[in-house]
Amino acid sequence: MINSVRRSLLPLYACSTMFTLSGCSSIMTHAGPYEGYYPGASRDIEMASNDEHGWMMRTMLLVDLPFSAALDTVLLPYDYYRSTDGRKSARETIAASEKEKQAKGHMNGSGYTKPKAKDKGKK
């Protein structure tokens, strides 16, 4: 009885583990602000081509790439919906707010200093 339960649960456990661990980049990028179409696959390619990551991380990214691409394909309608809703990402909103505050002089006394202009004549 116990062996038959183990035999029936083992494939279920293996499949659920595989689906849970696959498409990690796609899941992470879709949880954040909108980053365009196929964000998980493009993030995998970007990180795999970066020299800052070791061989183990690159291997895991290359294994994750087809799963992220498949999940990104399934989520294309959601990406299209997010692209047409007209909202900016949080990063863009904060950057625009900071520029507006700097232009109005609200950043005075906050420790912010404007970058100094470089003189081209002096060395």
Protein topology:
Elements: H1 2-21, H2 24-31, H3 39-48, H4 55-74, H5 76-84, H6 90-104
Structural category: mainly alpha
Order of helices and strands: HHHHHH
> Which radius of gyration do the C-alpha atoms yield?
23 Å
Mean pLDDT: 77
Would you count the extended β strands for me?
Answer: 0
User: Which range does the strand content fall in?
Assistant: under 5%
How does this structure look, described?
- By secondary structure, this protein is mainly alpha-helical.
- Helices cover 67% and strands 0% of the residues.
- It has a domain at 25-84.
- The protein has 6 helices and no strands.
- Helix 2 (24-31) crosses helix 3 and helix 2 (24-31) packs across helix 4.
- The longest helix is centred in the N-terminal third of the chain and has 20 residues, at 2-21.
- The protein starts with a helix and ends in a 19-residue tail after the last helix.
- The model has no long low-confidence stretch (mean pLDDT 77).
Keywords:
DUF1375, 123 residues, YceK/YidQ family lipoprotein, 6 helices, mainly alpha, lipoprotein
Describe the structure concisely:
The chain is mainly α and 123 residues long. It has helices at residues 2-21, 24-31, 39-48, 55-74, 76-84, 90-104.
